[in-house]
Design brief:
385 residues, nine-stranded mixed β-sheet, 12 helices, 36% helix, globular, disordered C terminus
Length: 385
């Protein structure tokens, strides 16, 4: 009976994801009349692959230089779950790797300022940097998606970070839907590559600031696009203490090619000699599987949805193989309907506690008792413990 329910949940979640993929394809597809794939696209991509792959695929990489310590404007923003909340802003200062992309980069003024929201309880705690998925970045949404209060209660400080071209960094008047994420990732491969370079630049600057504030360790947990970025960061920074990739994208070229299967742009690209393999060469500079993971094996973890059809299960399996068979937790839901996410967060908490981060589960006797005469549970039902 339970197995049948789980299978039904997985099938329903997969159907929802497939519908969302069709919506995303319409949102990301450029107007064919103004953005036709050039006939020399193959030659251009071969050139880009050579330039982005020129002495950049190791660690350290000249594509991912270490940023200077940022000057962070930190402003109080009230309290939540017993933590002091602060809004952090700082100038990104990122310079694109390709000089000819700098004019395009500079014209997106909102993207020049990096933003984070910090939940700080006390000194000497590890800080979990949280990375949202494509189209996300709103503080109220990410608070709930990642259950910030849960991690604060278990010994972590939390920093929500907005990826390039998302949230407050998104420009106005872009895209046919919500503007957050309309420019990144996209079919503009140069902008996509440079945005990953900027994301790591800004994240390393944030980590420097958090250490200066007294964080005992810095780790990351991200979903989807944020899972990809978490895995990328873990391949570049030996100081990253833990990495949790949830429903992660891993092979961006394969996903773009697969999800664009029915689009005119995909057909034009194939006719011009473009392939998923060629895109993979261009994207290799930021692919999470290009370099070995630098996070200690015991502090790596992947969470995946059996019904996920946006970043399908094969993406998580590929990352797990690259991460030397690290811990992998499956939940029955999908990318959007994350049925079983509470169990997943509990598994992450146990795994990080075993690796020495956060607090272990509180003994059952220390929990608030339940009165058997009262049908209401006095504990917060949203608490996934």
């Amino acid at each position: 009976m339970l197995r049948d329910v789980v299978r039904a949940v997985t099938r329903a979640s997969a159907a929802l994801d497939r519908g969302a993929v069709r919506v995303m394809e319409r949102r990301m597809a450029p107007n064919a009349r103004r953005a036709a794939v050039p006939t020399d696209a193959h030659r251009r991509l071969v050139e880009l692959a050579a330039r982005y792959g020129d002495d950049t695929l190791g660690a350290p990489s000249r594509f991912f230089p270490a940023p200077p310590p940022p000057v962070v404007d930190e402003r109080p923003d009230g309290e939540a779950w017993g933590a002091r909340v602060s809004l952090l802003r700082w100038s990104s200062g990122y310079r694109p790797f390709l000089p000819e992309h700098r004019d395009d980069h500079h014209r997106w003024v909102a993207n020049h300022t990096a933003h984070a929201r910090l939940y700080h309880v006390g000194p000497g705690r590890p800080t979990m940097v949280v990375l949202h998925g494509w189209g996300g970045g709103a503080w109220w949404l990410e608070e709930r998606a990642f259950v910030v209060g849960y991690w604060l209660a278990r010994g972590f400080d939390v920093a929500l970070f907005q990826l390039p071209f998302h949230g407050a960094r998104a420009p106005d008047g872009v895209g046919r839907g919500p503007r957050s994420g309309a420019l990144f990732p996209s079919t503009n491969v140069v902008r996509t590559n440079e945005a990953f370079g900027q994301a790591i630049w800004d994240l390393r600057g944030l980590a420097t600031h958090l250490r200066a504030r007294g964080a005992s360790a810095i780790g990351a947990m991200g979903m989807s696009l944020g899972g990809y970025t978490t895995a990328l960061w873990a391949s570049l920074d030996r100081e990253l203490a833990f990495a949790v990739a949830m429903i992660p994208a891993v092979d961006l070229s394969a996903l773009l090619w697969r999800h664009g299967d029915a689009s005119p742009t995909r057909r034009q690209a194939a006719a011009a000699g473009v392939s998923a393999e060629l895109l993979a060469e261009v994207f290799a500079v930021h692919a999470p599987t290009t370099r070995p993971c630098l996070v200690p094996p015991a502090a790596r973890m992947i969470v995946a949805g059996a019904g996920d059809r946006i970043t399908p299960p094969d993406q998580a399996e590929r990352l797990r193989a690259h991460w030397d068979g690290c811990a992998l937790h499956w939940f029955p839901g999908g990318h959007l309907a994350q049925v079983g996410r509470g169990d997943a967060f509990r598994a992450v908490r146990r795994h990080l506690a075993a690796a020495g981060f956060g607090e272990p589960r509180r003994p059952r006797r220390e929990r608030e008792p339940r009165d058997p005469r009262d049908p209401r549970d006095p504990r917060d039902p949203r608490d996934p413990r």
